[in-house]
Amino acid sequence: MSEAGAKVAKELNKKMPWRIMRYYFFGLATFISLILPWIVINGNHFFLLSFDKLKLHLAFVQFDMQEMYLMPFILMILFLGIFGMTVLGGRVFCGWMCPQTIFRVLYRDLIETKLLGLRKRIKNKQNEPDMSKPENKVKKVVAVLLWTAIAFIAAADLVWYFVPPEDFFEYMKDPGEHMIIVGTILGIVAFLVYDIIFLKEDFCIYVCPYSRIQSVLYDDDTVMAIYDPHRGGEIYKDHEKMFTKQKELKAVEEQAECTTCESCVTVCPTHIDIRQGLQLECINCLECVDACTTVMGKLGKESLVRWSSEKEVLYQKGKTDYFRPKILGYIGILLLITVILGVMGSKKEHMLLNINKETRLYSTKLIEDDKVKVDNAYIFLLQNTLNEEHRFYFDVIVPEGMEGKIKITKPSAPFSARPGVKKKKVVILTTDEILVDDPRKDTVIPITIRAYALDDKAKITVDRQSTFIFPRADVLKAAK
Fold it and tell me: Around 100, how many Cα atoms within 13 Å sit in the side-chain half-sphere?
């Protein structure tokens, strides 16, 4: 090996393999997903969609189901984020973040290979374990049992984002009363066992719809695992494999550097040959990059398979343009949706209040001093959306000039409302003043009902618009 080649090999050996980096990322993602449901701030979770209590927790803020208008924005951020990620980095979500990939690595690389030795090497994913050996059959049963146990943990973790752990374990003390949760967990476990042990990467290739839409999102600057045919040589022509040995390749392309060792093929979890070019099955796990880096590094050369773009490797038209208009557009849209979500979420009301007038417009009653009392009755439906009990009451805000003339006579005192319980109140507004002297028609007076918590009025206050109907002059005269 030349001095320059030795220098290249030394530099390559300093770099951490992509596979190891993925393992660290998988560990971090697993830790976050497991610990997040347990983190509670002021009784609220980071994310919880509770169908049981009809609540949505988002960023440790609790929302009622009437505020589910936030969910479309969350879904838009999720899908646009994945689409933008695909335009920028190909199927990087599949290789680095998808639970299917993480679970397969956990089962295949850790359980089957490292713990039980069913597979000989992590770098060879093409050869399935030899199940003709009795000891391997025992190991396979152990592997299935281990994965089933892990699948129960994964299923419970998923359920915790819909039924929080503090409720989940309480419910599981009497599972017969909560068969929907039990059935959901058993269904998820059954799917994970079938998917990870039997379906395997066929899920990525044939079932997952994401692979079908990725080709629409790709462009020449999309970063992916890509083979350099200019250095390595054309192994395939018109999708037909032309060379299986280096001497055959050298006879046609003397400068070709590919050793035809097929390390990039044997390590591929979706069983493709990256040298064939862009393929839907590639999940951007970059294990082929690691494999070629190891082989070519021994020869003092850089890898023939790189994480780069077609523009840079195939067409050699310059460096990859990461911040192109399409990417900036995705970033802009995501920022806009995030800002809208933040603004709408910040306007959360800490109580819900619906006001409906009774069918009778008003009632009149003669009182002392030849005065007529006019009552308007309303049905208030109030719900305390916080986690603690509060005492509530109401104020009436009237147009200028009518201050103090419309009063609440019922309820006569503040009342308590427990968390999450809807409370129905009949509210009567009364006046014994002549608000309007109109001989022709009843008068509709716009008012504002302000509901508030006595112990935290600054935070827990909502306003609702309504009306007070004042009778015409002849009705008042007839009541006297």
Answer: 21
* Site of tokens 């028609």: 441
Q: Of 192-196, 268-272, 294-298, give the range with the top mean pLDDT.
A: 192-196
CB 48 within 8 A of CB 162: yes
Q: Are 278 and 262 in contact (CB under 8 A)?
A: no
Burial 70-108 (b: 16+ CB within 10 A, else e): beebeebeeeeebbbbbbbbbbbbbbbebbbbbbbbbbb
429 bridge partner residues? 376, 408
CATH entry 3.40.630.30 includes domain 351-479? no
Query: What span, in angstroms and rounded, lies between the C-alpha atoms of 16 and 12?
Result: 9
**Per-residue pLDDT reduced to its tens digit, 48-95:** 998 888 788 888 888 877 777 888 899 999 999 999 999 999 889 999
Domain ranges of the chain: 1-38+90-317, 351-479
CA distance 427 to 450: 13
In whole angstroms, give the CA distance from residue 243 to residue 233.
10
CA pair distance 254, 219, nearest whole angstrom: 31
* pTM score: 0.78
The pLDDT tens digits for 249-290 are: 888 898 999 999 999 999 999 999 999 988 888 999 999 999
